[in-house]
Design goal:
It holds the Pfam family VWD. By secondary structure, the protein is an alpha+beta fold. The protein contains eight helices and 19 strands. 22% of the residues lie in helices and 22% in strands. The strands form four sheets. An eight-stranded antiparallel sheet has the order 7-6-5-18-17-16-15-14, covered by helices on one side.
Length: 416
């Protein structure tokens, strides 16, 4: 004690070291194990594990009996979280042993597995924050990731379908019928570039006749009809090189996947889809937009200035300056007569099954219907072909978000 006397009890000893003499003395504490019932025996049994290996190696350096008594006391008193208190006692003895130079591992042993928190094994990936929840854990994912362990990187899809109609990464829809080569999507860090070449097709406004992808030092070109070249030379599928994989998917579409977080899908005659991982957010430009989560600021021209004019935006992304600018768009359904009536009826099939199963994932708003009607009206020579392409475009959009749709075998689509 401060007066150099030996205290007669632990309580007297502790009280003697109060800083404020006016502070009341602590009352005598009852032993919680006398009222803990069955928990007392469990506490003693669990605490007695400190008499065994790996703690045994330290017994000659740090007496274990006092730690076992303290352990039982704390576990009995720890009514809400006895396991937590038990593990703290094991840790206290191990830490004390470490201070005298005796180090050992214990948490990896099966009898102590309950002392390893779910978050201790770092289950959350990609910068996710782990929180212990009961016997489990919860991951709060960093921006751009999802899943129980933040294992899945978010992604967005841009498409140019039909005449073509564009849907940006941020889900803004707009029509642009230019007949030049355009920058569909480019990474401002130059990790990839996707170009599309549009031409007049079979009486329609325009369609995508070629897709060029520059990625990982490769120049890949997919052309109308399904031809594929790398640096101008035909290749055999599947093709793998430098983290780039090219295959034909189950629906015979050409698919390029690159480990920079890019996927490009082309059906060989009108529809192209670009999927970009979330790592590219705020770093993209082109007809597919800037991928920043805001659909209201998509029309950023090649000079990085915004415009409200769709044609001014689209024309700015021409690759060749000599190619003519696209004039303002006219609605072909205004002069299509009976074809317009057929288009209005047939395109309504997009609202029904089997497409309806996908409506919650790929919004089936008026935009898809309007695009369908526009393309069928504009497709003077082959309206049925254009109608089927619209069905195919919607089903592909669904498959890219994990909802495959089988539709061509159904009677209402027999003409496709």
């Amino acid at each position: 004690m401060p007066d150099k006397q030996i205290a007669r009890s632990d309580k007297i000893f502790a009280d003697s070291w109060k800083v404020d003499r006016s502070c009341p003395e602590a009352p005598p504490l009852p032993n919680p194990c006398t009222t803990a019932g069955a928990n007392t025996q469990e506490a003693k049994a669990k605490c007695s594990l400190m008499r065994q290996q790996p703690f045994l190696a330290c017994h000659n350096h740090v007496k274990v009996d006092t730690f076992i008594l303290d352990c039982a006391y704390d576990v009995c008193a720890c009514k809400d979280h006895p396991l937590s208190c038990l593990c703290e006692e094991y840790s206290a003895y191990a830490d004390t042993c470490s201070l005298v130079g005796v180090n050992f591992q214990w948490k990896h042993l099966p009898q102590f597995k309950e002392c390893v928190s779910p978050c201790a094994v770092a289950p959350c990936m990609n910068g996710g924050i782990c929180e212990n929840v009961g016997k489990g854990y919860k991951c709060t994912c960093a921006s751009g990731y999802r899943g129980g362990r933040c294992q899945t990187e978010d992604e967005a899809v841009c498409s140019a379908t039909g005449d073509p109609h564009y849907r940006t990464f941020d889900r803004k829809r707009y029509p642009f019928m230019g007949i030049c080569q355009y920058v569909l999507a480019k990474d401002l860090d130059n990790s990839f570039l996707v170009l599309t070449k549009n031409e007049r097709c079979s009486g329609r406004e325009s369609c995508v006749v070629a897709v060029t992808v520059s990625v990982k030092g490769l120049r890949i070109e997919m052309k109308k009809g399904g031809s594929l070249t790398v640096f101008g030379a035909a290749v055999t599928l599947p093709y793998n090189n430098q983290g780039v994989n090219i295959v034909k998917d189950k629906t015979r579409k050409l698919q390029i996947t690159a480990d920079v977080g890019l996927k490009v899908l082309y059906n060989g005659f009108s529809n192209v889809f670009v999927t970009a991982k979330a790592r590219h957010m705020n770093r993209l430009a082109g007809l597919c937009g800037n991928y920043n989560g805001n659909a209201d600021d998509e029309f950023i021209k090649v000079d990085m200035k915004r415009t409200a004019n769709v044609n001014e935006f689209g024309n700015s992304w021409k690759v060749g300056r000599s190619c003519p600018n696209e004039p303002p768009l006219k609605d072909p359904c205004l002069t299509a007569g009976n074809v317009a009536r057929v288009a209005k009826k047939k395109c309504q099939l997009l609202k029904q099954q089997p497409f309806a199963v996908c409506h919650n994932s790929v919004v089936q708003d008026a935009g898809f219907i309007n695009d369908c009607e526009f393309d069928v009206c504009a497709c003077n020579n082959h309206p049925t072909s254009c109608l089927c392409e619209e069905f195919d475009a919607y089903s592909t959009s669904c498959s890219l978000v994990g909802i495959p749709i089988t539709w061509k075998n159904l009677s209402q689509f027999a003409e496709c």
